[in-house]
Specification:
The protein is an alpha+beta fold. It is built from three helices and five strands, in the order αβααββββ. 24% of the residues lie in helices and 28% in strands. A five-stranded mixed β-sheet has the order 1-5-4-3-2.
Length: 107
Amino acid sequence: MSQTFDQIRALIASSQVRISDHGYDELAEDGILAGDVLAGVEKAEVLEDYPESPKGPCALVLQHDAQGQPVHVVWGIPRGRSSPAVLVTAYRPDPDKWSADFRRRKT
């Protein structure tokens, strides 16, 4: 598990969450509903953890929308702050770039 994502889940559970402008753009571009992403955070699986990211700790997670389709989401916490959880970006993973289960990058 990821301490970063545990903290992010707790922030989301207490409604301390924000979606970045880029996040909104990417959600719209891929037809992903913000409500689906927020609802799916409890079942999210951490794929990559970046606790030392320059902009603040973040994690790439695999989630699913209401129809069960995979969605990759990058959640973060601004550097030097303890809140809010920020949806940095979200997208439908490209099967040409990811394993069949969308958990590993293809090399």
